[in-house]
Amino acid sequence: MPGRRSFYARMPAAQDMIGLYFCVGNTNLVPPWGGTEVLLSTIPSRSPPRVAASVDRFGYGTTNTAFGKIRLKAQRNEPMPEGWMIDRQGQPLTDPKRAT
Q1: Tell me: the pLDDT tens digits for 60-94?
Q2: How far apart are CA 90 and CA 34, in angstroms?
Q3: Which residues neighbour 39 within 8 Å (Cβ) at sequence distance 6 or greater?
Q4: How far apart are CA 36 and CA 100, in angstroms?
Q5: Most exposed of 19, 49, 82, 85 (fewest Cβ within 10 Å)?
């Protein structure tokens, strides 16, 4: 289910237009999917999205997972699944403490 604020990005899509919605981010920065530099705020399901877009009723997120989930894994000393993040060399990063 899309976030509540995706409503604003989806409004233009209903009229066959592209919709974009931007909001001020926070300090919970993670690399975008496939990236190595921390650039984007996460879009967790329980806080406002930082970026929302719609094209013909299609939306996307800016990161693979919310930073809060990474922090939780670190607190619990649990590894992250492969595919959540990569290190600066492009290798899978499974240690959440290296990401925080």
Answers
A1: 566 778 888 999 999 999 999 998 888 888 899 99
A2: 8
A3: 29, 31, 32
A4: 14
A5: 82
